[in-house]
Amino acid sequence: MVKWADICLPKDRGGLGIPASRRMNVALMLRWVWQILQGDGGLWLQLIKAKYLQGRPLLACSLATGSQFWKSIQAIKNDIRLGLQISVGNWVGTQFRLDPWLDGEPLRLRFPMLFAICGDPAALVSTIAREDRWHVAFRRPLGPAEVHEWEVLQQLVPLPVLTGRDFVSWGLSPLGEFSVSSTYFALCRVPVLPWLSPLWKAPLPLKIKIFVWQLLRDCLPSGTEVLKRHGPGNDICPLCHVPETGTHILFSCVAAQALW
Ligand SMILES: [Zn+2]
After folding, report:
1. What is the CA(233)–ligand 1 centre distance, in A?
2. Long-range pairs for 73-78: beta carbons < 8 A, 24 or more residues apart
3. Is residue 33 within 8 Å of residue 80, measured between CB atoms?
4. Ligand 1 mean position to 236 CA, how many Å?
5. Ligand 1: distance of its center to the CA of 252 in Å?
6. Tens digits of per-residue pLDDT, 79-119?
7. How far is the CA of 203 from the centre of ligand 1 (A)?
8. Hey, which bits of the chain come out as E strands?
9. Three-state SS across 203-229?
């Protein structure tokens, strides 16, 4: 009575913790993306740089043709932004609006009105930074609200200082090092539900925990849930003649109240 996708969520996020093979595969592929961003690789990285990147940063490279490995990298590379943090460097490979280089948040989220009318959403910091200010092209003149947002951006976003190459770190682990497990959990895109923790820690048989888990999700095979899925019977409790839900069976039914 629970969707397979939900069953495959981690236990602390509302699922049963069954590994999702596709999500795990993406997490493992993102390790390659991480290594490319860090410049951490041998001959294979030289090959990628020479054949595909040709001086462009990976996240700004839109070349979609090539080997199966390259196409897989291109398909999932943007998920690296779930945990990517970029520190001050020479900004050569940093995208002004898309990369999370300002306090770990992309500018497209902090300044959505400006992002909606910008000329080149994927522009690099190094191409629009000048000595005195940001030189950003917009598709039309700015309105009053956009002018205000632009002023805030100019005050808030520091001009780059050339100090060396860009430095990337992983915001989802304490040491800043990429890990497949933290990526796997981030790819769930579902927040942690702290109130579920006592259930899974309780000293109860697993089948009882799963029963309570179904109750909490309102997915017990009660009359109303069976009928929703076009199952047999009606949704009426034979004792009380009211709709039979999970909470009714366990708490408000006359039979249940007699037990409690
Ligand atoms: Zn009843």
Report:
1. 15
2. 73/29, 73/32, 73/33, 73/36, 76/26, 76/29, 76/30, 76/33, 77/30, 77/33
3. yes
4. 8
5. 7
6. 998 888 876 565 556 777 777 777 777 888 888 888 888 88
7. 29
8. 84-87, 167-170
9. CCCHHHHHHHHHHHCCCCCCHHHHHHC
How much is the pTM? 0.73
What pLDDT, on a 0 to 100 scale, did the predictor assign at position 67? 93
Structure tokens belonging to residue 238? 């034979």
Distance in Å, CA 256 to ligand 1 centroid: 8
Residues 178, 31: contact at Cβ < 8 Å?
Answer: yes
* Residue 153 CB contacts under 8 Å (≥ 6 apart), including other chains: 107, 111, 114, 134
DSSP type of residue 158: P
Question: Whole-number mean pLDDT of the chain?
Answer: 86
Burial class, 245, CB count within 10 angstroms (exposed 0-12 / middle 13-18 / buried 19+): buried
Q: Where are the domains of the chain?
A: 84-170, 194-259
Under a CB-based contact definition with an 8 Å cutoff, are residues 112 and 91 in contact? no
pLDDT exceeds 70 at position 224: yes
Ligand 1 mean position, distance from CA 219 (Å): 17
Q: 246 CA to middle of ligand 1, Å? A: 10
Helices 21-38 and 68-76, packing angle to 10 deg: 100
Tokens representing residue 180 in the block: 């497949």
Q: Residue 215: what residue type?
A: L
Question: Within 13 A of 165's CA, how many CA atoms are on the CB side?
Answer: 6
Q: How many CA atoms lie within 13 A of 33 on its CB side?
A: 30
- Phi, psi for residue 57 in degrees, rounded to 5: -70, 150
Please, are residues 139 and 118 in contact by the beta-carbon 8 Å criterion? Answer: yes
The torsion region of residue 19 among left (phi > 0), alpha (psi -120 to 50) and beta comes to beta
